[in-house]
Amino acid sequence: MSNRIQTLPAAMWLSGLHPWRGHFDGTTFGVNVTVLNFTQETRGDGPTLHVHTYDEIFIVRRGQGVFKIGHVCIEAKEGDVLFGPANIPHAFKNNGDTPLETIDIHLSEKWTQKDLVDNDPDWWLRPGAATLR
Asked: Which whole number is the average pLDDT over 57-82?
């Protein structure tokens, strides 16, 4: 148990409140966890294919999206949690009619990623993604 109680005001890590958008590195608290909160406003919005050298956990706060983790496509909605292993390319897109808001937990003290060329940029438009139950 730590006696290093710390706080981080919204103005120090969020660039916007409506919708929430921002991140903070684990170095802020001296831990190996970095947190990102982003909102993909419209259908088709989302990060391009990329990879990290550490694991990542995605929490869908609202909306719905399709996640590509390796060669697996998974449809997820509000409340679902997905795991992306280290060194596995991934991307996700808003595939709904409302904003997709995610909290992305990077198991690293800093957010680093390598953006990749996606040879199949329309992957998210094809039906057949697995749905979380």
From this structure: 96
pTM: 0.89
- CA–CA distance, 31 with 80 (Å, rounded to integer): 25
**DSSP state, residue 102:** E
107, 49, 103, 130: CA torsion to nearest 10: -110
pLDDT tier, 42 (very low <50, low <70, confident <90, very high otherwise):
very high
Between 13 and 130, whose confidence is greater?
Answer: 13
Q: Rounded to an integer, what distance in angstroms lies between the CA atom of residue 45 and that of residue 48?
A: 9
Parallel, antiparallel, or unpaired for β 72-77 and 130-131? parallel
Contact call for residues 50 and 89 (beta carbons, < 8 A) = yes
Provide the H-helix boundaries in 1-109: 10-13
Mean pLDDT, range 77-99, rounded to an integer: 97
Q: Who contacts 105 (Cβ-Cβ below 8 Å, separation ≥6)?
A: 33, 34, 35, 36, 56, 57, 58, 59
